[in-house]
Amino acid sequence: MSYGEKTTYNTHKSPVLIILGIFFSIAIIYFLLVQSFNFLCYGFKNFIYILMENCGSYESLSRIIIISKEDAFKAVEKMMQFLHDPQMKKLAHIAVINSHWDNFFSNRTFMHLSDVKNIFIFCLRSSKFLFILSLILIPVSAITKNLYNLYHIWLRTLAFICTLLAAITTVAIINFNTFFVIFHKILFDNDLWLLNPYKDYLINLLPEEFFAKFAICAIIVFLIFCFVFSFFLKTLSRLEAKSYL
To answer: What's the pLDDT tens digit per position in 110-119?
Structure first.
């Protein structure tokens, strides 16, 4: 391609391509969003504990019960293992609490975390399946010379989702407590998420402030992932354009 020569693209979008492109975009966005949370939980070593320190979680727990910081953080480590391992059916952490041995996790906490685990595992599996399925559209688009169109459908869908995400984030910032309650009522079909800080000790380690800060960090990671994928798709569309010359 000589200097000053314009790159040409196939800009015709068939209805089938538009539908498949939207499916592709939503599937990729869903996968990247789930992986953003997964990365902060399991890919970024000690992030959870750093965030807990920032929120003063142990200090909050210490006002309720007497337990060592090591035991409190080990309980969170057990919880993280439980949420990520489909084969792990029980959750217990025996520690010295108020000068005697006791299980850190109440029955109600265990039942709620079981609900959380089911949702988390479902999101991980379904997002990976849809991601792999959607990737098939990339070579198909390359063969049919539609990578440029796929890239622009991706950008428009991403812009829409990010606008929606920004609106939800704004509502959450205005009144996070109300948002937190509505979110749980939508996500769960029971009230097990309503934990008693004097009986369900975990809620003291993971207060609303923790979840608010975690969500902000997850959104930042998600946007970075989206930028990287956008750059990847744009590069492919440019390579396709050169094949016209």
So the answer is: 999 999 999 9
Q: Where are the domains of the chain?
A: 15-240
Start-end of H helices in the chain: 15-38, 47-55, 57-62, 69-84, 107-135, 137-143, 147-174, 176-187, 202-205, 208-242
Model's pTM, two decimal places?
0.88
d(CA 40, CA 163): 23
Q: Answer whether 201's CB lies under 8 Å from 64's CB.
A: yes
- For 84, the token pair is 């990520």
User: Partners of 96 in the beta sheet?
Assistant: 101
Give phi and psi for 93, each to the nearest 5.
Answer: -145, 100
Take residue 26 and report the two structure tokens written for it.
């939503």
Q: Which of 214, 211, 162, 219 is closest to 183 using CA atoms?
A: 211
